[in-house]
Amino acid sequence: MSNLKALAYGLRETVIDMIVEGKAGHIGGDMSVMEILTELYFCQMDVSPENQDDPDRDKFVMSKGHSVEAYYAVLAEKGFFHKEELVSTFSKFGSKFIGHPNNKLPGVEMNSGSLGHGLPVCIGMALAGKMDGRGYRVYTVMGDGELAEGSVWEGAMAASQYRLDNLCAVVDRNRLQISGGTEDVMGHDDLHERFGSFGWHVIDVADGNDIDELHAAFEEAKTVKGQPTVLIANTVKGKGSSVMEDKANWHHKVPSGEELAQIRKDLAEKKAELEKEGAHHG
Fold it and tell me: How many other CB atoms sit within 10 Å of the CB of residue 3?
């Protein structure tokens, strides 16, 4: 797992490069969700440029579409498109790498970013899989702020009704959204209890930025029968540098020169430390 831990920090560096080059980006949520995406794409899911048109491929929707930089960085690392083009053209006029996921790009299943839509669409995908007798799994990542959208809970009811055990949702529970603390804006109280009452199998991930904990949770989700699973991943918004960790004003922000230097230093140090650990364990 250690190489994935280091990879997540390398991908954070790619995100910083994109945001600085494109002069825009939802940096805080990119950082909180990175381990989730890394574990999904490099360990859990059967999806790649080679099988992207295979009807049996696993499917993923980035419901919190504003964390697109993290998503693009992972897809580029996976080989769906060239990292150099991504970094140099992101968010620029005429670029195909726009500020929310769009399915004209290889590897992107649906346009997203209009919050509350990812889970309902994934329910359709999961139900289709059941009806067609296919073995693929469907994953989606939602923000905790996104859960204020009513369509999420309509979807939650349907997923339970249709016993979609091929569906696994993840809540990026970083407790911050654009306008402040999630619990102050629209409180969720005990999300475990809420999803449980809707008939879901709920797995609490104490540290949603820990690859090992995420791995165990996704493995458990695969064993669940007769009901959908949701991971409540307790993450840190802006994870990776004290400059931006757990700060609401880093929801959408381009780092200044001084901030940028410190962020790059923090990420490089953490990546080197994890690479060293990986070599030691390997």
Answer: 16
